[in-house]
Structures are given as C-alpha cells and as structure tokens.
C-alpha cells in the first residue's frame, strides 16, 4: 500500500520534533531522574547504615565474650591454689628452709 505524496510529506513533518519540544522532553527526563535519585538516596544510605550497625554489634558481642573469658582467666590465675598448681606443673617445688628469704619494709 503506497501513500500519496502529500501523506509522505505529512508523515515527515509529523516525525520532525520541534526543537523546543525536544528540549522540554530532555529536561523532563533529567528532572525525573534527579528527583528519583533524591528520593531513593536516603533509603539506600539507611540500609547501608543498618548493615554497618549489625557488623559493629557483632564485633561488640565478640569483644565482650573475649573480655569475659579474659576476666575469668585472670580470676583463676589470681587464686592461690591455681598459682600453686601452675608452679608445680612448671617444675617448681616448695623451697627448703635456707632458700626462703623474708623481705621487710623499713
């Protein structure tokens, strides 16, 4: 089906976009993308901060468990019975009478 000559000219003229319309179209798309970015950026940042907070809390729990373990170990090491057992296991023995030295404060 062939279009008459006048129809071709009409179609060609209709296909041409007015320069002003083109600028408005491009500006509309640009403003839409900027608005979309402004709208979504805070949400993306909030999700990022939530993940970071979860990592920090996991690290805090790990460090608190380590602190608890170290405190328990310190209390065990400061107990006299534990110190004596470690000394005996380390090859130390009870000193004889001449080996005992008393130090007094002046």
Number of strand segments: 0
Uncertain regions: pLDDT < 50 for 5+ in a row? Answer: none
State the domain count.
1
Helical content band:
over 70%
Please state the structural category: mainly alpha
Question: Rounded to an integer, what's the Rg over CA atoms?
Answer: 42 Å
Number of helices: 3
Strand fraction: under 5%
Give the overall shape, derived from the CA principal axes. rod-shaped
Separation of the first and last Cα atoms: 123 Å
Q: Could you state the oligomeric state of the chains shown? A: single chain
Order of helices and strands: HHH
Major sheet attributes: none
- Whole-number mean pLDDT: 85
Topology of this protein?
Elements lengths: L4 H11 L3 H60 L1 H10 L17
Q: Your description of this structure?
A:
The protein is mainly α and 106 residues long. It has one domain (5-79). 76% of the residues lie in helices and 0% in strands. It is built from 3 helices and no strands. It has helices at residues 5-15, 19-78, 80-89. The longest helix is centred in the middle third of the chain and has 60 residues, at 19-78. The termini are far apart. The mean pLDDT is 85.
């Amino acid at each position: 089906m062939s279009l008459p000559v006048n129809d071709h000219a009409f179609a060609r003229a209709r296909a041409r976009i007015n320069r002003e319309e083109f600028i408005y179209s491009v500006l509309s798309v640009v403003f839409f993308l900027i608005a979309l970015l402004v709208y979504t950026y805070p949400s993306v940042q909030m999700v990022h901060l939530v993940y970071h907070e979860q990592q920090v809390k996991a690290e805090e729990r790990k460090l608190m468990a380590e602190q608890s373990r170290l405190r328990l170990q310190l209390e065990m090491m400061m107990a006299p019975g534990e110190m004596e057992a470690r000394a005996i296991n380390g090859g130390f023995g009870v000193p004889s009478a001449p080996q005992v030295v008393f130090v007094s404060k002046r």
